[in-house]
Amino acid sequence: MAVIDLLEFQDQSRSVLGKRLPDDLRADIKIGAQLIVRESQMAIFYRGGQALDTFGPGRHTLTTGNLPLLSKAVNKLFGDKTPFQAEVVFVDCGLIDDDSCKWGTKEPMNFSDATMGIVQLRAFGTMTYKIVDSQLFINKRMKSSSIYKTSDFANWAKDTIVQTMLGVLGEVMKTIIDLPALLTKISSACKARVAADFAKNGVELEDLRIGGISPPPEVQAKINEFSGFGLFKKDLPQFQQYQMAYAVRDAAQNEGGMAGAGMGAGMGMGMGMGMGYMMPGMMAPGMAQQQGGYPPQGGYPPQGGYPPQQGYPPQGGYPPQQGYPPQQGYPPQQGGYPPGGGLPPQAAAPVAAALCAGCQAPLTPGVKFCANCGKPTVVEEPSTVPCVQCQAPLPKGSRFCPQCGATQQAAPPKCVKCAQELAMGARFCPHCGTAQPG
């Protein structure tokens, strides 16, 4: 059996956290052997699975003086200079910040989002740590292994971080839309909880950083769409125009073939529906003008036709050759509207001639009986009245003239004392209380 007189362990790559010597665990260590412990290392002697003595950085000569716990067992069996069997574990206690400190999720984490339901998230980041309690670290993590690497610790640490992060996300975040604002809070909470788990294994967590938490591409596309809709949530018509513009662009890029035909049909349906929504608004002003404007609500010509047998308009043309209105202009004495004696488009149709109520034949003005059927004639009073300013014909009850805009109602009365406007028929002034003349 070999006898060891020099104990040391070098690892320039710093990929080993713990190394047990001798390698075959059968060599004897000679009393007086040299023990070299490098900077940031600790050396711990084990015998029978029990930790006996610990040495810090430096060069040590193994004697019964500096092995007080081990010397009792050595002296009892072998004497002061007899070789003894023992194990030495070298532990790297320096700060670890190499590539093994990068962590990330092996599989997506399932997160219950309040807006989108179950969403799978991925996360990644870095960590830095160091061993502060060598014996606790060997007992909890290295155990009886001959070598323990940084990759071995990283596998355990990554699982711990991911599990802790999933719990933190469920507590502090409701939806991934709020993730950017909560990233710092999530990182701090994860670091505090992971540090407690590391401490139980004799390791101090120096830093834990979250590089990012991201959803899968299809979920990110939905978030981008929701964000784009938020630009127009206060103005839905603009959003519809925005969508239509993209549809037109896509149709232009996919012209021809069945795809182009399908897109064209879809666009036709969409534009048709849009025109259907727009038509009522476009027709509303014209309908309102017909209800309160000119010609009368009964329409023109009368339902019975004008005149019988000859059709409409008469063969001689309408208006008659002498023109309508008369050559003296319309309205007379007030300059006419519009200049030149013509009629505005709204007043171009003249008032219909009186017709027999029985046979609808035209009646001669002033007659009391119809010359065609002999029935008494009842000539209705004209349904129009002239404008108080421009004399244009207006339906009875009109409040304003559509040609000149003049008010057709009489001016409201005023108080005889304070000259305030009063309601029609008011007997007392509501402002000063003065009685008004009847």
List the secondary-structure elements in sequence, H or E.
EEEEEEHEEEEHEHHEHHHEE
The strands making up the biggest β-sheet line up spatially as 5-4-7-2-11
Query: Class of the domain at 99-220 in CATH?
Result: Alpha Beta
Query: Helicity range of the residues?
Result: 25-40%
Figure out the total of helices.
Answer: 7
Oligomer: single chain
Number of strands: 14
- Sheet having the most strands: 5 strands, antiparallel
Radius of gyration: 52 Å
CATH topology of the domain at 99-220: Tetrahydropterin Synthase, Chain A
Strand content: 15-25%
Shape: rod-shaped
Which architecture of the domain at 99-220 would the CATH scheme give at its second level? 2-Layer Sandwich
Return the structural class.
alpha+beta
Kindly report the average pLDDT value: 76
Low-confidence stretches: 257-261, 288-345
Description of the structure:
By secondary structure, the protein is α+β, with helices and mostly antiparallel strands. Among the domains are: 90 residues; 122 residues, Band 7 domain (Tetrahydropterin Synthase, Chain A, 2-Layer Sandwich). The protein has seven helices and 14 strands. The strands form four sheets. Strands 5-4-7-2-11 form a five-stranded antiparallel β-sheet. Strands 8, 9, 10 and 12 form a four-stranded antiparallel β-sheet that branches. Strand 9 and strand 10 form a beta hairpin. Helix 3 packs across helix 4 and helix 6 runs antiparallel to helix 7. The longest helix has 36 residues. It is rod-shaped, with a radius of gyration of 52 Å. It starts with a strand and ends in a 43-residue tail after the last strand.
